[in-house]
Amino acid sequence: MTPLMITLLVVAGIVILIAIGYMNHVVENNKLEKARTKVELNDRLRRCGEITETFPGQFMSPGLKLLITRLELNVVQRLLNLNKSDTALKARIAELNALVGQGESIPVNNPPCPIQTEAKAKDVRFLLEALHGQVTRAAQDGFLPANEAKHWIREIRHILVLLHIEFFNNLGQYALQQEQPGQARLAFERGVQYLRKQPDPATYREQLEYLEKLLARSNAMVLTNTQPVEGEVNQLTEGLKVVEADADWKKKAIYD
Predict the structure, then answer these.
(1) Calpha distance 48→69 (Å, rounded)
(2) If both were cysteines, with which of 103, 175, 176, 222 could 180 make a disulfide (CB 3.0 to 4.6 Å apart)?
């Protein structure tokens, strides 16, 4: 065997080893990517289930229910692509397809859940934040068209405003029932201020006028019964400040 042949064999062996190493690297990367994608999709599936099951009925419209069902269907279909033999996923796809096929006639069984505490208001706000993230990701993946995604982002912001309106109104009404006009005035005042800060206050003119009337009523009761202590800070004040604070996520748009 000539030196040239030996050299060629050595070079060929090195090339083969490099090729094998590269192929192993690609295979491992594909496995890692598949595992990462599976974890991400399962997390999105969990969030969709949490939203559709626990969202308060007074904010859940048939259109919103249909959207969440479509988002879940897309995630389950992608999971099935990663594990084509999963019978549970196949069964769930059949269920979701049947629901989506009903269109706006899709059943909405979420019971109303009054927003009467700061904790409940936070829970619903977190659900809205999760829904915002699902819509944003679906748009980035190309599942939702740009116009539809923008529509639902606006709708989520609208529901957030309705959440605040109900929270402030319920707090104020409860305070009036407890003959605490000072705290009722604080709740209604916060609600009025919140609506006045909205970029489209005309949309909520009716709700604003309603809260303004309640504010005037509670203010008159305060002036009649007692004088408020200047600089009073109580648990209700702090709770309202926490809930009233606008979350950064609701100010973000998917597209400029």
Answers:
(1) 8
(2) 175
Enter the tokens of residue 106.
């899709």
Q: In sequence order, which ranges of the chain are alpha helices (DSSP H)?
A: 3-54, 62-82, 87-100, 118-140, 146-177, 181-196, 205-225, 235-244
- Residue recorded with tokens 């998917």: 254
DSSP state of 104: G
What does the alpha-carbon distance between residue 122 and residue 29 come to, in Å, rounded to a whole number?
Answer: 40
pLDDT in tens, 174-217: 999 999 999 999 999 999 999 999 998 789 999 999 999 999 99
Query: Is this structure's pTM higher than 0.90?
Result: no
Per-residue CA distances from 171 to 15, 50, 176, 182, 217 (Å): 74, 26, 9, 12, 15
pLDDT in tens, 124-178: 999 999 999 999 999 999 999 999 999 999 999 999 999 999 999 999 999 999 9
| Euclidean distance between CA atoms 113 and 110, whole angstroms | 9
- CB-CB neighbours of 189 under 10 Å: 19
**Pair 59, 159: CB distance under 8 Å:** yes
CB neighbour list of residue 166: distance below 8 Å, 6 or more residues apart: 58, 114, 115
Q: Could you give the CA distance from residue 68 to residue 74 in angstroms, rounded to a whole number?
A: 10
- Residues 6 or more apart in contact with residue 41 via CB below 8 angstroms: 75, 78, 79, 82
Distances (CA, A) of 113 to 58, 59, 78, 170, 244: 7, 9, 33, 12, 19
